[in-house]
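Quick one, tokens below:
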């Protein structure tokens, strides 16, 4: 790749895309590069740098709505929201340190493109669930917009949800409008010891099925707890977070103690310690600093997650823990080999999908980084790609070969 074009506004984005049509040239979309090592290496002829498309264009705290250009640094947005006691409720992870980069980098557009969500996914959804509207440029070089500034805005296709998680393969998103929420004033995390993955699954299921309004739920084997803040010496445990105002948190914590009575002695982390813990879970801190050792992000049925994590770690000589009440497994392997066939074979009986989240560029190039598509889904994906980017100009091959 010999050329990089720095776009200063939406018109330059559209001009750049249109200039490639009919030439056979392709474009890799970039922001700050914090997620460049995610997905398959894009086989593009040129790069389109969106890091200059910055600025918050609308922020109305009382209306819980924010709009910003795609290249706006996430850190700026999060700091602005924090100053008003608000937050991005889907708790997006900071993937920088996990991928060998600095913390608190990345842009709003990158966060939206990969649709990542942190521990609060179980109660608040992912990035796509908070997108109210977008402006974007298709692979045809056409500017389009969808949605608006309010939640009840259903006109035609829900394009914000379609673009979230498309990894820039359908369009170049130039501006995003999201709903934001007040940050809970207090939180507490209850740690319950468990003697194995089956007990953990039962405890997580009981907690999530209760009226305790749990907003974070993780299965943390003993090999992991020692590398998380405030958990030194803790046994294999489940961690359960509750957020809100003081009296409500206290009442739900007491209720949760009854739900988990069979687990024995419980430990509680108060607000500051709880936030430290869930930030580490969100950012997969136990598996940071491991170079290009293969790391899998596996989504499956919550009841199957703890046992699947334990089995894969044992069979492949790795380590694993679960977020999302067991529904998200993070699996770190001992070397750069991905063992994709073994991972997906173990996952198959439970359903779900496995994404090779970190690996060397060579490993990502020869491995199906994303869950292979079956016949019907592959055909649908091809039709959607054809609608938005018929010349296959944008991020070619980033998700699947030939797309």
């Amino acid at each position: 790749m010999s050329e990089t074009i720095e776009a200063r506004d939406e018109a330059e984005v559209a001009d750049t895309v249109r200039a490639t049509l009919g030439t056979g040239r392709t474009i890799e979309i970039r922001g700050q590069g914090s997620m460049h090592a995610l997905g398959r290496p894009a086989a593009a002829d040129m790069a389109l740098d969106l890091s200059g498309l910055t600025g918050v264009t609308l922020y109305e705290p009382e209306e819980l709505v924010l709009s910003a250009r795609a290249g706006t640094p996430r850190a700026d947005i999060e700091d602005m929201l924090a100053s008003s006691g608000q937050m991005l409720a889907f708790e997006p992870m900071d993937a920088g340190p996990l991928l060998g980069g600095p913390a608190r980098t990345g842009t709003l557009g990158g966060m939206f493109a990969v649709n990542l969500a942190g521990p609060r996914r179980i109660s608040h959804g992912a990035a796509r669930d908070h997108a109210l509207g977008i402006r974007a440029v298709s692979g045809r070089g056409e500017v389009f917009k969808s949605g608006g500034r309010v939640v009840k805005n259903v006109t035609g296709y829900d394009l914000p949800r379609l673009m979230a998680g498309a990894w820039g393969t359908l369009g170049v998103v130039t501006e995003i409008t999201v709903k934001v929420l007040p940050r809970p004033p207090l939180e507490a995390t209850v740690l319950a010891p468990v003697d194995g993955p089956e007990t953990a699954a039962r405890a997580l299921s009981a907690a999530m099925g209760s009226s305790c309004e749990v907003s974070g739920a993780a299965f943390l084997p003993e090999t992991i707890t020692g590398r998380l803040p405030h958990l030194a010496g803790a046994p294999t445990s489940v961690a359960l977070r509750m957020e809100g105002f003081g009296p409500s948190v206290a009442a739900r914590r007491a209720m949760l103690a009854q739900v988990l009575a069979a687990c024995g002695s419980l430990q509680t982390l108060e607000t500051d310690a709880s936030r430290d813990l869930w930030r580490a879970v969100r950012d997969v801190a136990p598996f940071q600093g491991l170079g290009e050792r293969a790391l899998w992000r596996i989504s499956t049925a919550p009841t199957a997650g703890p046992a699947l994590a334990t089995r894969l770690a044992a069979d492949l000589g790795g380590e694993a823990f679960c977020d999302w009440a067991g529904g998200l497994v993070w699996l770190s392997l001992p070397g750069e080999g991905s063992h994709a066939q073994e991972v997906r074979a173990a996952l198959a009986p439970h359903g779900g999908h496995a994404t090779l989240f970190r690996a060397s560029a060579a490993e990502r190039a020869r491995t199906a980084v994303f869950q292979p598509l079956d016949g019907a889904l592959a055909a649908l994906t091809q039709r959607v790609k054809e609608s938005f980017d018929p010349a296959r100009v944008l991020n070619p091959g980033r998700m699947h070969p030939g797309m």
